[in-house]
Structures are given as C-alpha cells and as structure tokens.
Fold this sequence. Notes:
It is a single chain. By secondary structure, this protein is α/β, with parallel strands linked by helices. It has a single domain (22-162), classed as Glutaredoxin. It is built from 5 helices and 7 strands. Strand 1 (32-34) and strand 2 form a beta hairpin. Helix 2 packs parallel to helix 5. The radius of gyration is 18 Å and the shape is globular.
Amino acid sequence: MKTLIAILFIAVLLAPVTVFAMNVGDSAPGFSLKDVYGNIVTLNSYKGRVVFLAFWATWCPSCKEELTELNTLQLKYASNGFMVLSICIESSDSNVANYLKKHPVTFPVLVDTDGVVADTFRFSGLPASFIVGTDGLIRHKYSGYNKESVTLFEREIFDLLNKR
C-alpha cells in the first residue's frame, strides 16, 4: 500500500501543471498571427492602445453579431487609441476570407489555424473577448455575447481610453 501511495504521489508531482485561464490583472500574453492578407500582426505592436481581443469562428452566430458591433466601436474610437483585433479560430484561411467578403470589417482579422493563441488565453466557448489596457494588462474579459454586451463594452472602453 505504501508503494502504491508513493507511486501516486510521484505521478502527481510529475504530471503537467495545468495553466489556469487568463484573469483580469494578468499580463496579456504576446502573440504573432497572420491576418487574412498574410501580414504578421503582433499584440505588442499595439502597446499603449486599448485593445479589444475578440475570439470567434465563422460558424458561431453570436460571434457574427459581435463582430458587427465591434466594427461600430472600432470606427467610433479608433482615433482615440482603440483597436479591435479579431482572432478567428478556423482551420482554413479561405473560410475566413470568404466570410469577410460578405461581412467586411475595418479592423485586423487574424487567423489562429492551429489554436495556439486561443489555448494561451484558455477560455471556453465562443465568442470570448478580452480588453487589454494601455499597460498590457487584461482589464476585462467576457464569455458569450448578447445585445446588452455592447453597452458594457463601450462603457469599459470609454473608461480605459479616458484614463490614458
């Protein structure tokens, strides 16, 4: 019995450590992804701006609604230092490009074909969103989307922009 307990104890010690979800106040992990045009976009290049990270997929109905509203916020607050970076979790760039032909947006659309960036942010369900402050810290995080979300997003974006 002692041997079994010792083996279990060692197995627990050697098991991979689970990384918990990103929390408000954590540093947003840096990343580099290609956009739908093949350009490399890095989160670090937006340091000093308020960045809304929107994880989505073309098959997600509420994600599509959120993107439309985020485009409105991008147009409204871009000149104040706000940027939306949408990160599509798709296995095919062509799915995303075809979607954007029908539903264009004014912000960068990045494609996380292998899911590495999504895994780094450790969320469950789509859409998933994070607002990163000018200091690179996660200031707000959201799971899901509904019409009331837009009012909340805008208030929190406005507050962060006014603290600059």
